[in-house]
Design brief:
Elements: H1 15-21, H2 26-32, E1 44-45, E2 52-60, H3 67-75, E3 81-93, H4 97-105, E4 110-117, H5 120-126, E5 130-132, E6 134-135, E7 147-148, E8 152-154, E9 157-159, E10 164-168, E11 171-175, H6 180-202, H7 207-210, H8 213-219
Length: 238
């Protein structure tokens, strides 16, 4: 017996982990995850103030058709982030203001879309987090079936329903549900280490010395102009 196209019962990353992750940046989590899980740099929020964090609800749809996105809004549970793949197709706005209002009424956590949207000004004013690869005024068809809550590969990243999704102005990272507790803990430690590093910089240290880069440059035999005494170049005569 084949699996149904729409799956309702999924195991989600815990609410506790989601709340811990909300205060982290996508770049920090990506680094703490061994530089894994980053989606394409083309996927960006329609407004730079937007941030999302929640369990993934995956959708596979045919490019130029948004029927399964409409269905997904009513399969998703409050807090879920719809992660939808239209194969990067940007010649149709498959999500707009009406769907945004519908998603907000359902209490959803946001949309990550490998496709295009429209009504971006209205979406920004509503404040619902929408991340996408493009914008198009063109409409879509509503005829083709697809998959909801099946494993999805987007930008070479395997995304399972219930995985942790974090997005901000820098991009989107996906962390396997099974790895989420450890990765969030590592991310918090990395955040603390970065805060300590900035304190050292403000106290006068340099990144070249802190990270051993001066020695690395020396080993690579970097050449540079010798500065005159006093550390200043020749001054222009007036």
């Amino acid at each position: 017996m084949t699996d149904p196209a729409v799956v309702h019962s999924i195991h989600r990353v815990s609410h506790t982990v989601i709340e811990q992750c909300r205060h982290l940046s996508s770049a920090t989590v990506h680094e703490a995850y061994g530089r894994r899980g980053a989606l394409s740099s083309r996927i960006k929020p329609v407004d730079n103030r937007m941030k999302l964090c929640g369990p993934a609800m995956t959708v596979k749809l045919r490019p130029g058709d948004n029927l399964m996105l409409h269905k997904a809004i009513y399969v998703a549970q409050p807090g879920d982030v719809i992660v939808a793949d239209a194969q990067g197709f940007c010649e149709a706005g498959a999500w707009g203001e009406i769907m945004t209002v519908a998603a907000m009424e359902r209490g959803l956590g946001g949309l990550v879309f490998n496709g295009a949207v429209r009504d971006t000004r209205e979406i920004a004013e509503l404040g619902f987090p929408v991340f996408c690869v493009g914008v198009s005024i063109k409409g879509t068809e509503k005829t083709s079936l697809g998959l909801i809550n099946h494993p999805l590969i987007m930008n070479d990243v395997l995304i399972n329903p219930g995985d942790l999704v974090l997005g901000d102005v820098d991009g989107v990272v996906v962390v396997s549900r099974d790895d989420a507790v450890e990765v969030v803990s590592r991310s918090e430690e990395r955040q603390r280490a970065e805060a300590r590093a900035m304190e050292r910089l403000r106290a006068g240290e340099t990144t070249l010395d802190m990270y051993g880069l001066a020695q690395l440059l020396s080993e690579r035999k970097l050449t540079e102009e010798r500065m005159p005494p006093g550390g200043e170049g020749e001054k222009e005569e007036r």
